[in-house]
Design goal:
By secondary structure, the chain is an alpha+beta fold. Helices cover about 40% and strands about 20% of the residues. It has 4 helices and 4 strands; from the N terminus they run αββααββα.
Length: about 150
């Protein structure tokens, strides 16, 4: 069992390793990308990657403070579902208007990998293999789709 400080260090070590692994990979537009803290450029739309001791998740999260704008963004993505699926090469789970772990209403489109543990270094290659193609695919999708979300 890890202390909070040890757990934090392990998570930081994983994300640092992932960032270093992804550093040479350019965005779909040929630019340097911050893959871990990916900036969509649209308020209230985030690409989130998370991992803990049971699973890893990657998602598009809609969290705009204005519920109407949040719903509009989610609706816009719904219209682009086929384009997103083509970029990802897989079906993701669509969750409109759910409550997150902080009690905030969000909408989310994402996928989860079960049975991995950030605290087991031997799982790191599996985690990287899970996150890498999906964040690159999201970037490729977003390079074409983002203009429809800018207000």
């Amino acid at each position: 069992m890890y202390t909070k400080q040890e757990a934090s260090k392990q998570k930081q070590a994983f994300w640092t390793a992932f960032g270093q692994y992804m550093q040479p990979i350019l965005s779909a537009e040929g630019l340097k990308a911050n893959w871990i803290n990916y900036k969509t450029g649209v308020t209230g739309i985030h690409f989130k990657m998370d991992v803990d001791n049971t699973h890893a998740t990657i998602a598009i999260v809609f969290s705009h403070s204005d519920a109407d704008i949040q719903a509009a963004h989610y609706g816009q993505l719904t219209q682009l579902k086929a384009m997103l699926q083509q970029a990802l090469g897989e079906e993701w789970l669509w969750q409109p208007m759910i409550t997150d772990e902080y009690g905030k209403t969000i909408s989310r489109v994402g996928t989860t990998l079960q049975g991995v543990n950030i605290y087991r270094n031997e799982d790191w290659p599996t985690l990287i293999s899970f996150f890498k193609p999906r964040i690159i695919a999201l970037d490729a999708f977003w390079s074409d789709a983002r203009y429809g979300f800018e207000m």
